[in-house]
């Protein structure tokens, strides 16, 4: 099984979930320098692939029967990458294909969401049986900040979110890639509770037994700090996302995730507690 984008936190989580099912995972990476991370997550082999040209894709897919495709975050060529990977999967005779999209890809206020929507259409056209996963934001995105006692974000502290646990997303991905019944389906994966960052900080303080602050930082500070190293397109995409979050957060239907897992999904409090 090939996991495209296996070096990031999502790719590593999906790799681990598949490895837990005794699936032999090949990790598709942009650079061999990150092979150690892929092997640590449970990959059995590594393939170096250039997603912007497709170089290495055909070789990476030799002997593969399923693909999990996750594009680099806010990549400007999301659609082209999806087309290259999907077509290569068809050439290789892959049996199952899962595409990692995003919750509410048709939200016109966020350009990178719209690219996901277009990529979904491309994948469906090339691989009609593909499974599409549309996850909400992860608990893990702010977990480290909560543990450190300061959750700083460049949008409203009261905006609502139905965040999903990364481990739950990975479990659903592994299920979709290893069992029948997910072909041609789209799964919206939202967490079981709606919380703002202010709510999350309060829950974290209670669970951890210490003070956890929720802090709103201004856009200029973000642009000069965390956003400084991004290219212009990525920075613009994220600024549009923050503006959208500021207006309405990101909330989805929690029932699908629970049905797919066959259990209660992990809450923010669960994520804060040691496994």
Automatic annotation (TrEMBL):
Domain of life, per lineage: Bacteria
Family annotation (Gene3D superfamilies): NAD(P)-binding Rossmann-like Domain, UDP-galactose 4-epimerase, domain 1
SUPFAM superfamilies: NAD(P)-binding Rossmann-fold domains (SSF51735)
Membrane-spanning residues: none
Domain NmrA-like: 2-252
PANTHER family hit by this protein: PRESTALK A DIFFERENTIATION PROTEIN A, PTHR43162
Protein name per the record: Nmra family transcriptional regulator
């Amino acid at each position: 099984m090939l996991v495209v984008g296996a070096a990031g936190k999502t790719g590593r989580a999906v790799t681990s979930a598949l490895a837990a099912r005794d699936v032999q995972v090949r990790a598709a990476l942009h650079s061999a320098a990150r092979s150690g991370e892929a092997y640590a997550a449970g990959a059995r082999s590594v393939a170096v692939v250039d997603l912007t040209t497709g170089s290495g894709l055909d070789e990476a897919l030799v002997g593969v029967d399923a693909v999990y495709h996750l594009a680099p975050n806010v990549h400007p060529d999301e659609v082209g990458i999806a087309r290259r990977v999907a077509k290569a999967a068809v050439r290789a005779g892959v049996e199952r294909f899962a595409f990692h999209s995003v919750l509410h890809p048709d939200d016109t206020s966020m350009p990178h969401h719209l690219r996901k929507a277009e990529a979904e259409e491309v994948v469906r056209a090339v691989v009609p049986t593909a499974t599409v996963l549309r996850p909400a934001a992860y608990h893990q995105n702010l977990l480290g900040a909560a543990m450190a006692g300061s959750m700083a974000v460049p949008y409203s502290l009261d905006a609502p979110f139905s965040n999903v646990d990364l481990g739950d997303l990975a479990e659903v991905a592994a299920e979709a890639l290893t069992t029948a019944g997910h072909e041609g389906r789209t799964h919206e994966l939202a967490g079981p509770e709606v919380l703002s960052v202010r709510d999350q900080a309060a829950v974290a303080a209670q669970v951890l037994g210490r003070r956890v602050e929720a802090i709103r930082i201004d856009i200029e500070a973000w642009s000069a700090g965390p956003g400084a190293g991004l290219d212009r397109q990525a920075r613009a995409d994220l600024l549009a996302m923050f503006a959208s979050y500021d207006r309405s957060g990101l909330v989805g239907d929690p029932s699908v995730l629970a049905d797919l897992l066959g259990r209660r999904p992990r809450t923010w409090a669960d994520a804060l507690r040691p496994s």
